[in-house]
Amino acid sequence: MMNLKSIPCNHQLQQLQLADIPFNTIEIAAIPEPFFKYEGAQWFDHKAFRDILLEKLTLHLHSNVLKLLVFTPKENQTYTAFAYLAKQEIVAMQLPNSGNFKAWMDNILEKQEDAFSDSFFKSEPDPNERYLVEFGKGSFSVKSGIGVLYDDKPNETGAYLHKKAPADYNKAALTNEKDQFIQNYVRTNDEVVNDEALQQLFHEFIQSKNLIPNPPENNEKVYSEFETLAKYQFPEVLKILLNFHNGIENTGFFSAQKILAEWKIWKGIYDDPNWKLEDLTGNNQADGLKTICVYTNPYWVPFYSTGGGNFYAIDYAPGIQGKSGQIIAFGADTSQISLIAGSMEDFLQQLISGNINL
Questions:
Q1: Tens digit of pLDDT for each residue in 101-149?
Q2: Which tens digit of pLDDT belongs to each residue from 318-343?
Q3: Same domain, 205 and 158
Q4: Among 9, 74, 150, 341, whose Cα sits 20 to 30 Å from the Cα of 245?
Q5: Exposure pattern of 226-254 as b/e (b: 16+ CB <10 Å)?
Q6: Are 175 and 326 in contact, with CB atoms under 8 Å apart?
Q7: Which of 93, 130, 141, 110 is nearest to 44 (CA)?
Q8: CA dist list (Å): 128 to 30, 74, 76, 159
Q9: Three-state SS for 66?
Q10: From edge to edge, which strands make up the β-sheet containing 310-315?
Q11: Beta-carbon neighbour count of residue 43 at 10 Å?
Q12: What is the CA 235 to chain-centroid distance, rounded?
């Protein structure tokens, strides 16, 4: 693949002039000949062309193209285009005014020019008029009078491109804000696990409470799916315990599948762009400096239900005086993120002693 030049779509973009923007000359391969949506149609299937174009560019640029601006050329010059990538970068391009791409674009513009003659004022189209064709997922539009961007206001190009950024970029900015917040606390590799002590305590717990665990299962697929989504290892302490059970009746202990399913639900809340960082942190309290004040995050792994949508979880994003792998309480009705136990061993000991109810 050619070495593409791109520019970040951030606040600095607004300062760039047209001369500051690096352009790439790109050939879009395998664009099909124009075709109709159905037999007898007057115009080619422009929405199908949009989907094909975005797909081809996504493959060529090795990044999902969320939006594409194409400016029609003067005379026989190349098309000028700007592709907004999912990674919040813009690739500026010169696209050839030839082949099937030109045939599709000519048909789009022919329809636009026919609108002049069909309008109430019967105005004639300007042969030198320049158009902007916008392609996006689920959207397609043509606007006239866009040549002013280059002809009269080249110094405002960056500000214009920043203004035209897809709405998805706001989602990305919100996600980035949450990521920056949580990464200050994440400690997924600091947990110390005593395998023998953990097994001994678990069996003591089962015997002392006369419990019958559900038979263990092979959970490798569950662990693999979790690790693919979470980008960190499935908790080792849970793997050890799940060697001896797959859920325990009359307790809140989850099976491996239930752990994954519940973790996905809470991760979905955290990732939802409708939940801003201020929403996640605004109504919760930390337990001193042991925990952090956030409603949920992907580094809490719920493994035990306390009822009513509330849980005990392994905490891999502790407060500055907390410990990786500590056990916390969180959930729908929990305003304070309480520290329950310093470790899984401590948690089991409290269950045995009755300090924590089943």
A1: 999 999 998 876 554 444 444 444 455 678 889 999 878 888 876 655 5
A2: 999 999 999 999 998 888 999 999 99
A3: no
A4: 341
A5: beeebeeebbbbbbbbbeebbbbeebbbb
A6: no
A7: 110
A8: 29, 7, 11, 25
A9: strand
A10: 285-286, 336-341, 326-331, 310-315, 300-307
A11: 13
A12: 24
Closest CA to 230 of 255, 284, 258, 266: 266
**Domain limits for position 195:** 186-353
Residue 66 contacts residue 171 (beta carbons within 8 Å) = no
Q: Give the position of tokens 């419990």.
A: 211
The SS3 assignment for 346 reads helix
Tokens of 117: 């003659």
Q: Is residue 177 part of a domain?
A: no
- The pLDDT, as a whole number, for residue 118 is 43
pLDDT higher at 191 or 70: 70
SS3 content of the chain, % helix, strand, coil (to 5): 40, 20, 40
- Tokens found for residue 239: 């793997």
Q: Tokens 């190349």 sit at which residue?
A: 78
Which residue bears the tokens 């005014």?
97
Residue type for 325, please?
G
